[in-house]
Amino acid sequence: MFIGYIQNNNDQTDYADQYQNLNSFAKEQGFVLGCVHADNDFKNVRNIIVSDCEGIIINKISNIGPYLQDIKDNLQFCQERNLKLFSIEDGYRFDQNNLTGDFFKGMDVAIDIRSNLISQSTRKVLSQRKKEGKKLGRPFGAKVKSKLENNSTEILKMLQAGISKSEIARKLGINRASIYAFARRRGISFTRVCK
Fold first, then answer.
1. 40: Cβ contacts below 8 Å, ≥ 6 apart
2. Which structural domain range is residue 11 located in?
3. Is the separation of the CB atoms in 5 and 45 below 8 Å?
4. 84 and 20, same structural domain?
5. Which residues contact 48 (CB under 8 A, 6 or more apart)?
6. Same structural domain for residues 84 and 164?
7. In what order do the strands lie in the sheet with 92-94?
8. pLDDT cut 70: percent of the chain above it
């Protein structure tokens, strides 16, 4: 049995096209498509893998991750569980024959090269702008909007409801110290209740 994965981008036409591609490919290959999972994060597919799953069918390799590192991690997941992965549009077939240590070393090299190229490109652009006389960086004294500002109402409600700072941090996926700093900036003090 195979699982189909559709990257959900809330476009019904795209969803229908991906769904049709997965079913057509499975039929052509003689695969049993047990289910089609639509999600915006491939990592959530990991939760529905069952023991009789042979592999995963996707429309294109970029569906399993926005960055090379994510794609590598998800391919390693498939390798560790002896799953095949078929990418229809790209024509890729990943299985135990080509998901080897050498393949992943090659991906690490590609990730390093890409990172270095981005870094060099950024330095080059900044150097050029500096030569043109443009000021770089944030203006002195500029107010920086905290990442928490977008969730400020929600955080305040949770604090008022007595939810712990650690729990709030876990729910929002941020550091607990950020919650304390956020509260301090708003003049909220925390008193420890001893029983």
1. 7, 8, 9
2. 2-99
3. yes
4. yes
5. 3, 35, 37
6. no
7. 33-39, 2-7, 55-58, 84-87, 92-94
8. 92
Residue 120 lies in a domain: no
Predicted model pTM: 0.62
pLDDT, residue 194, reads: 44
Flag whether 129 is in a domain. Answer: no
Please, are residues 33 and 39 in contact by the beta-carbon 8 Å criterion? no
Q: For strand 33-39 and strand 55-58, is the pairing parallel, antiparallel, or unpaired? A: unpaired
Asked whether residue 71 is assigned to any structural domain, the reply reads yes
Structurally, how many domains does the chain consist of?
2
For residue 17, what is the domain's CATH number?
3.40.50.1390
CA dihedral sign, ordered 168, 170, 171, 174: positive
Distances in Å between the Cα of 189 and the Cα atoms of 160, 177, 180 are 11, 14, 9
CATH number at residue 174: 1.10.10
Residue 176 lies in a domain: yes
d(CA 133, CA 148): 34
Residue 62 tokens read as 């970029």
Residue 185 has a pLDDT of 78
Q: Is the dihedral of CA 60, 99, 82, 72 positive or negative?
A: negative
What's the chain's average pLDDT?
Answer: 85
Q: How far is CA 194 from the centre of its chain?
A: 41
CB proximity list for 55: less than 8 A, separation 6 or greater: 2, 3, 78, 83, 84, 85, 86, 95
